[in-house]
Amino acid sequence: MRHPLAVALWGAALLFAAVAADAAGGARLVLMRPADATGAADATALVREAMAAALSARGWETAPGPAVEEVLQEARLRSLDSLPASVLERFDSRLGSPLTVLTTIVTWLPGENPIVALSARALDRAGTTVWSGVSALTGNDTAGLFGLGRLRDVEQLGRRAVRELLADFPPPGARVKPSPAAARRPRPGLPAPATWRSGELFGPEPLRICLLPLAVPERAPAAGHTVTVLLARRLAASGAFVVVEPVDFQAALRSQRVYSPGRLRGDALREFGRELGTSLFLRGAVWNWREGNPWGLNVAAEVELELELVDVESGRILWSAHHERRGAQYLRTFLRGGIGSAAGLADQLIAEMIDQTRRTPPAPPRTLRFANAASEERIASQP
Questions:
Q1: In angstroms, how far apart are the furthest CA atoms of the chain?
Q2: Which of 58-72, 87-101, 189-203 has the lowest mean pLDDT?
Q3: Are 5 and 236 in contact (CB under 8 A)?
Q4: What's the rounded Cα separation, in Å, for the pair 338 and 302?
Q5: Fewest C-beta atoms under 10 Å: which of 78, 288, 311, 366?
Q6: CA dihedral for 148, 149, 152, 158, sign (positive or negative)
Q7: How many CB atoms lie within 10 A of CB 288?
């Protein structure tokens, strides 16, 4: 039996070849208006304009905005970072756009050392992710030797982040990028992520999983959404998981009349899983989230994550992992290479956790035991 990742890549390559052959004068895709998790004024328009220009330079035509909005209005959708397969099929059949690009502005902080982080993915008409990428930059990342050429304007940095984000986006007819960038290596001697897994992970078929809201520190309420966006991208690209789309998650919440998904337990969680077609839920916590300082130099980020994959039907834990890093732990020669963006560091941690889990020998499934103190209580007690 072929590995599911190889099958997915072969299918994605055929998709791009078909798009190229079917589109005269350039293939067309839908470029959704970016979802902005930051509330920054003008960031959405700037990022979309820069992405449209970058995609055009790679041979792609973007579908007209009014036609896209008409399809979304017919489906009564407001979501910008997740779409059901029915809408993706309409984009293909009515607009001639077999690909849809979804973008999230994760971080947008102006300052002397601005910080920008973007996440994007391309979906085919069936909802399969055929490309994804993340770009997380600080002004310090753009400096040459002796600090020359450093960008201090957040809009200039945003355009630079878009160019880096789409640098490997395949032109029409080209082979698809196989996976996100591999994890960077920290300085030697640092501990690897603490991981455990059962033999049910990385089997012949990918596992369908649902991501539950993460517990977060009070001082970083947006960290949970940021990590969830990055985590979903990495898990899907690993070939071992099919992640429930946020739009389907929200539909199930409405159907089941669930108003606080983070507190789902027991029978309610099992019933919720049946609505989504899975019994596997990934839960966890962001124990530490410290953003780099946009008004200071050489201030690296800090992130600590804990993840746990639970089978709620059998009551077993299939995977658990814990990891923490400081951005300064990736510094190289001439004090270069550190990670000043919390989103960039979180993406790095997730990549390391998945890589380490692949290298970890499986062990018998652990019995599920909920802690006496909820994650929210442990986080709330932090100084």
A1: 62
A2: 189-203
A3: no
A4: 11
A5: 78
A6: negative
A7: 19
Tell me the two tokens of residue 93.
């059949």
Vertex 313: Cα angle to 255 and 201 (nearest 5): 110
- Is there a single domain that holds both residue 124 and residue 199? no
CA dist 73 and 107 (Å) reads 28
The pTM assigned to this predicted structure is 0.84
Q: What angle do CA 286, 44, 224 make, to 5 degrees?
A: 10
DSSP 171: P
| Spatial CA neighbour of 97 closest among 31, 9, 17 | 31
Phi, psi of 54 (to 5 degrees): -65, -40
pLDDT at 353: 95
Q: Residue 292: pLDDT above 90?
A: no
Task: Tell me how crowded residue 359 is: count the other CB atoms within 10 A of its CB.
Answer: 8
DSSP class of 327 = G
Buried b (16+ CB within 10 A) or exposed e, 8-19: bbeebbebbeeb
Is residue 186 domain-resident?
Answer: no
Domain endpoint, select from 112, 147, 165 = 165
CA 14 to chain CA centroid, Å, is 24
176 pLDDT tier (thresholds 50, 70, 90): low
Tell me whether residue 26 is in a domain: yes
Cβ burial, residue 171 (10 Å; 0-12/13-18/19+)? middle
Verify that 228 and 103 share a domain, yes or no. Answer: no
Taking the C-alpha atoms of residue 48 and residue 233, their distance in angstroms, rounded to an integer, is 20
Spatial CB neighbours of 213, under 8 Å, sequence gap ≥ 6: 224, 228, 261, 262
Rounded Cα–Cα distance for residues 161 and 254 (Å): 36
CATH code assigned at 101: 3.40.50.10610
The structure tokens 């690909």 sit at: 99
Tokens, residue 350:
């997730």
Q: Does 116 share its domain with 74?
A: yes
Q: What angle do CA 172, 82, 319 make, to 5 degrees?
A: 100
